[in-house]
Amino acid sequence: MNRTIAPVTSDQTDYGVEEIRASQRQLEQRDLWVWGNAVIVILSLTALVVALSVSFYMEGAKTLFGWKLSLAVRALAAIVVFFTGYMIYQHLRLRTIQRQLAERQIEAEVFRRLAMFDPLTGLYNRRFAEQRLHAEIARSERRGLSMLVVLLDLDDFKGINDTHGHLVGDLVLKEFAKCLSSSTRGSDLAVRWGGDEFMMLLLDCEVNQLSIVLGRLEGFAVEVRGKRLPVSFSVGSRAYEPGDTLETLVAKADQNLYSNKAAGKAVNRETPVVPV
Fold this sequence. Notes:
With about 280 residues, the chain is of the alpha+beta class. It is built from 7 helices and 9 strands. The strands form 3 sheets. The protein has a 5-stranded mixed sheet, with helices on both faces. A two-stranded antiparallel sheet has the order 1-2.
Protein backbone atom coordinates (compact mmCIF):
# COMPACT_ATOMS: atom_id res chain seq x y z
CA MET A 1 0.00 0.00 0.00
CA ASN A 2 1.62 3.21 -1.15
CA ARG A 3 1.85 6.12 1.23
CA THR A 4 2.77 9.72 0.61
CA ILE A 5 3.50 12.57 2.92
CA ALA A 6 0.50 14.19 4.55
CA PRO A 7 -0.93 17.33 2.97
CA VAL A 8 -0.21 20.63 4.60
CA THR A 9 -3.08 21.95 6.66
CA SER A 10 -4.69 25.29 5.96
CA ASP A 11 -2.91 26.91 8.91
CA GLN A 12 0.53 25.90 7.61
CA THR A 13 0.78 28.86 5.27
CA ASP A 14 4.60 28.91 5.53
CA TYR A 15 4.78 25.38 4.01
CA GLY A 16 6.87 24.11 6.91
CA VAL A 17 9.58 26.80 6.60
CA GLU A 18 9.55 27.62 10.33
CA GLU A 19 9.93 23.95 11.19
CA ILE A 20 12.97 23.71 8.92
CA ARG A 21 14.48 26.85 10.45
CA ALA A 22 13.87 25.55 13.97
CA SER A 23 15.68 22.31 13.11
CA GLN A 24 18.55 24.31 11.64
CA ARG A 25 18.79 26.41 14.81
CA GLN A 26 18.97 23.23 16.89
CA LEU A 27 21.81 21.95 14.72
CA GLU A 28 23.67 25.24 15.06
CA GLN A 29 23.25 25.22 18.84
CA ARG A 30 24.52 21.66 19.04
CA ASP A 31 27.47 22.53 16.81
CA LEU A 32 28.24 25.59 18.95
CA TRP A 33 28.13 23.43 22.09
CA VAL A 34 30.62 20.95 20.61
CA TRP A 35 33.01 23.68 19.50
CA GLY A 36 32.65 25.49 22.79
CA ASN A 37 33.66 22.37 24.67
CA ALA A 38 36.64 21.97 22.34
CA VAL A 39 37.78 25.52 23.14
CA ILE A 40 37.38 24.85 26.88
CA VAL A 41 39.50 21.71 26.56
CA ILE A 42 42.21 23.59 24.67
CA LEU A 43 42.28 26.40 27.20
CA SER A 44 42.40 23.84 30.02
CA LEU A 45 45.38 22.17 28.37
CA THR A 46 47.04 25.57 28.04
CA ALA A 47 46.54 26.18 31.73
CA LEU A 48 47.97 22.76 32.49
CA VAL A 49 51.07 23.45 30.37
CA VAL A 50 51.58 26.74 32.13
CA ALA A 51 51.14 25.08 35.52
CA LEU A 52 53.69 22.41 34.65
CA SER A 53 56.08 25.02 33.36
CA VAL A 54 55.77 27.01 36.57
CA SER A 55 56.36 23.83 38.51
CA PHE A 56 59.54 23.10 36.56
CA TYR A 57 60.69 26.67 37.08
CA MET A 58 60.09 26.58 40.81
CA GLU A 59 62.11 23.39 41.04
CA GLY A 60 64.98 25.13 39.32
CA ALA A 61 64.65 23.68 35.86
CA LYS A 62 65.82 26.11 33.22
CA THR A 63 64.78 24.19 30.11
CA LEU A 64 61.72 22.28 28.89
CA PHE A 65 62.33 19.71 26.16
CA GLY A 66 65.64 21.44 25.35
CA TRP A 67 64.08 24.90 25.08
CA LYS A 68 64.58 27.78 27.43
CA LEU A 69 61.69 27.64 29.86
CA SER A 70 60.29 31.11 29.17
CA LEU A 71 60.56 30.63 25.41
CA ALA A 72 58.95 27.19 25.58
CA VAL A 73 56.01 28.50 27.60
CA ARG A 74 55.48 31.35 25.18
CA ALA A 75 55.72 29.06 22.16
CA LEU A 76 53.24 26.57 23.61
CA ALA A 77 50.83 29.32 24.59
CA ALA A 78 51.12 30.92 21.12
CA ILE A 79 50.48 27.59 19.39
CA VAL A 80 47.40 26.85 21.50
CA VAL A 81 46.02 30.37 21.06
CA PHE A 82 46.65 30.27 17.31
CA PHE A 83 45.01 26.87 17.02
CA THR A 84 42.03 28.04 19.09
CA GLY A 85 41.61 31.12 16.94
CA TYR A 86 41.85 29.04 13.79
CA MET A 87 39.16 26.66 15.09
CA ILE A 88 36.86 29.58 15.92
CA TYR A 89 37.42 31.07 12.46
CA GLN A 90 36.63 27.76 10.77
CA HIS A 91 33.59 27.34 12.98
CA LEU A 92 32.22 30.74 11.99
CA ARG A 93 32.82 29.96 8.31
CA LEU A 94 31.06 26.63 8.74
CA ARG A 95 28.03 28.30 10.35
CA THR A 96 27.82 30.78 7.47
CA ILE A 97 27.84 27.94 4.96
CA GLN A 98 25.23 26.07 7.02
CA ARG A 99 22.92 29.09 6.95
CA GLN A 100 23.31 29.44 3.21
CA LEU A 101 22.58 25.77 2.69
CA ALA A 102 19.59 25.99 5.03
CA GLU A 103 18.11 28.88 3.04
CA ARG A 104 18.52 26.91 -0.16
CA GLN A 105 16.93 23.90 1.50
CA ILE A 106 13.99 26.06 2.59
CA GLU A 107 13.55 27.43 -0.92
CA ALA A 108 13.69 23.93 -2.39
CA GLU A 109 11.13 22.68 0.15
CA VAL A 110 8.75 25.55 -0.59
CA PHE A 111 8.98 24.95 -4.32
CA ARG A 112 8.51 21.23 -3.81
CA ARG A 113 5.39 21.76 -1.74
CA LEU A 114 4.03 24.35 -4.15
CA ALA A 115 4.41 21.75 -6.89
CA MET A 116 2.42 19.23 -4.83
CA PHE A 117 -0.13 21.14 -2.78
CA ASP A 118 -2.96 23.57 -3.38
CA PRO A 119 -2.10 26.76 -1.44
CA LEU A 120 -5.69 27.56 -0.42
CA THR A 121 -6.88 24.19 0.89
CA GLY A 122 -3.63 22.38 1.66
CA LEU A 123 -4.80 19.35 -0.34
CA TYR A 124 -2.73 17.75 -3.07
CA ASN A 125 -3.07 19.56 -6.38
CA ARG A 126 -4.04 18.23 -9.78
CA ARG A 127 -0.48 17.96 -11.07
CA PHE A 128 0.59 15.71 -8.22
CA ALA A 129 -2.65 13.72 -8.40
CA GLU A 130 -2.08 12.90 -12.06
CA GLN A 131 1.41 11.62 -11.29
CA ARG A 132 0.07 9.50 -8.44
CA LEU A 133 -2.77 8.19 -10.62
CA HIS A 134 -0.32 6.98 -13.24
CA ALA A 135 1.60 5.10 -10.55
CA GLU A 136 -1.52 3.57 -8.98
CA ILE A 137 -2.90 2.50 -12.37
CA ALA A 138 0.36 0.66 -13.06
CA ARG A 139 0.20 -0.94 -9.61
CA SER A 140 -3.40 -2.04 -10.06
CA GLU A 141 -2.56 -3.41 -13.50
CA ARG A 142 0.27 -5.51 -12.10
CA ARG A 143 -1.39 -6.75 -8.93
CA GLY A 144 -5.07 -6.68 -9.84
CA LEU A 145 -6.01 -4.41 -6.95
CA SER A 146 -9.17 -2.34 -6.81
CA MET A 147 -9.15 1.44 -7.04
CA LEU A 148 -11.83 4.12 -7.18
CA VAL A 149 -11.58 7.59 -8.69
CA VAL A 150 -14.24 9.86 -7.18
CA LEU A 151 -14.95 13.40 -8.37
CA LEU A 152 -16.94 15.79 -6.17
CA ASP A 153 -18.34 19.13 -7.28
CA LEU A 154 -19.88 21.67 -4.90
CA ASP A 155 -23.44 22.54 -5.95
CA ASP A 156 -24.15 26.15 -6.91
CA PHE A 157 -20.77 27.36 -5.68
CA LYS A 158 -21.10 30.42 -7.91
CA GLY A 159 -24.31 31.28 -6.06
CA ILE A 160 -22.43 31.10 -2.75
CA ASN A 161 -19.78 33.48 -4.06
CA ASP A 162 -22.35 35.86 -5.51
CA THR A 163 -24.53 35.86 -2.40
CA HIS A 164 -21.96 35.77 0.39
CA GLY A 165 -18.74 36.96 -1.23
CA HIS A 166 -15.50 35.30 -2.23
CA LEU A 167 -14.15 35.18 1.33
CA VAL A 168 -17.04 32.92 2.29
CA GLY A 169 -16.44 30.94 -0.90
CA ASP A 170 -12.82 30.40 0.12
CA LEU A 171 -13.97 29.37 3.59
CA VAL A 172 -16.32 26.79 2.08
CA LEU A 173 -13.48 25.35 -0.02
CA LYS A 174 -11.10 25.15 2.95
CA GLU A 175 -13.65 23.58 5.29
CA PHE A 176 -14.76 21.07 2.66
CA ALA A 177 -11.12 20.18 2.07
CA LYS A 178 -10.67 19.50 5.80
CA CYS A 179 -13.76 17.33 5.82
CA LEU A 180 -12.58 15.48 2.74
CA SER A 181 -9.12 14.88 4.16
CA SER A 182 -10.47 13.59 7.47
CA SER A 183 -12.86 11.25 5.63
CA THR A 184 -10.10 9.39 3.78
CA ARG A 185 -7.42 6.98 4.95
CA GLY A 186 -3.72 7.72 5.00
CA SER A 187 -3.20 5.55 1.93
CA ASP A 188 -5.89 7.40 -0.05
CA LEU A 189 -5.52 10.73 -1.79
CA ALA A 190 -7.66 13.85 -1.34
CA VAL A 191 -7.17 16.39 -4.12
CA ARG A 192 -8.36 19.81 -5.13
CA TRP A 193 -8.90 19.01 -8.78
CA GLY A 194 -9.68 22.61 -9.77
CA GLY A 195 -12.04 25.43 -8.77
CA ASP A 196 -14.84 23.92 -6.67
CA GLU A 197 -14.12 20.39 -7.88
CA PHE A 198 -12.34 17.82 -5.73
CA MET A 199 -11.13 14.27 -6.19
CA MET A 200 -10.66 11.27 -3.96
CA LEU A 201 -8.41 8.40 -4.99
CA LEU A 202 -9.51 5.43 -2.90
CA LEU A 203 -7.09 2.51 -2.98
CA ASP A 204 -8.09 -1.10 -2.32
CA CYS A 205 -11.68 0.11 -2.15
CA GLU A 206 -14.70 -1.56 -3.76
CA VAL A 207 -17.63 0.32 -5.26
CA ASN A 208 -19.99 -0.86 -2.51
CA GLN A 209 -17.71 0.79 0.08
CA LEU A 210 -17.99 4.24 -1.48
CA SER A 211 -21.24 5.00 0.34
CA ILE A 212 -19.38 4.64 3.65
CA VAL A 213 -16.87 7.31 2.66
CA LEU A 214 -19.54 9.63 1.26
CA GLY A 215 -21.59 9.16 4.43
CA ARG A 216 -18.84 10.95 6.35
CA LEU A 217 -19.37 14.01 4.15
CA GLU A 218 -23.14 14.20 4.56
CA GLY A 219 -24.51 17.26 6.32
CA PHE A 220 -21.50 19.41 5.45
CA ALA A 221 -22.03 23.04 6.41
CA VAL A 222 -20.04 26.12 7.38
CA GLU A 223 -20.86 28.82 9.89
CA VAL A 224 -21.15 32.28 8.36
CA ARG A 225 -21.81 35.28 10.58
CA GLY A 226 -23.29 33.07 13.26
CA LYS A 227 -25.58 31.15 10.91
CA ARG A 228 -25.24 27.69 9.46
CA LEU A 229 -24.78 27.51 5.68
CA PRO A 230 -25.37 23.96 4.35
CA VAL A 231 -23.43 23.05 1.23
CA SER A 232 -24.35 20.11 -0.98
CA PHE A 233 -22.21 18.42 -3.59
CA SER A 234 -22.53 16.05 -6.54
CA VAL A 235 -20.47 12.90 -6.98
CA GLY A 236 -19.23 10.87 -9.92
CA SER A 237 -17.02 7.80 -9.65
CA ARG A 238 -15.23 5.25 -11.74
CA ALA A 239 -13.79 1.94 -10.55
CA TYR A 240 -10.57 0.89 -12.24
CA GLU A 241 -10.92 -1.81 -14.85
CA PRO A 242 -8.02 -3.52 -16.64
CA GLY A 243 -6.92 -1.39 -19.57
CA ASP A 244 -8.18 1.89 -18.13
CA THR A 245 -5.90 4.90 -18.54
CA LEU A 246 -5.82 8.05 -16.48
CA GLU A 247 -7.84 9.83 -19.15
CA THR A 248 -10.43 7.04 -19.21
CA LEU A 249 -10.87 6.99 -15.45
CA VAL A 250 -11.22 10.75 -15.14
CA ALA A 251 -13.49 11.10 -18.19
CA LYS A 252 -15.87 8.37 -16.98
CA ALA A 253 -15.98 9.77 -13.45
CA ASP A 254 -16.55 13.27 -14.85
CA GLN A 255 -19.35 12.05 -17.11
CA ASN A 256 -20.95 10.30 -14.15
CA LEU A 257 -20.57 13.45 -12.05
CA TYR A 258 -22.32 15.74 -14.49
CA SER A 259 -25.11 13.24 -15.08
CA ASN A 260 -25.76 13.16 -11.34
CA LYS A 261 -25.40 16.93 -11.07
CA ALA A 262 -27.93 17.50 -13.86
CA ALA A 263 -30.37 15.09 -12.21
CA GLY A 264 -29.96 16.89 -8.90
CA LYS A 265 -30.57 20.28 -10.47
CA ALA A 266 -33.68 18.96 -12.18
CA VAL A 267 -35.08 18.12 -8.76
CA ASN A 268 -33.90 21.28 -6.98
CA ARG A 269 -34.12 23.78 -9.84
CA GLU A 270 -36.48 26.05 -7.92
CA THR A 271 -34.58 26.01 -4.65
CA PRO A 272 -33.05 29.50 -4.09
CA VAL A 273 -29.83 30.29 -2.27
CA VAL A 274 -30.83 31.63 1.11
CA PRO A 275 -28.67 34.56 2.30
CA VAL A 276 -27.24 34.47 5.82
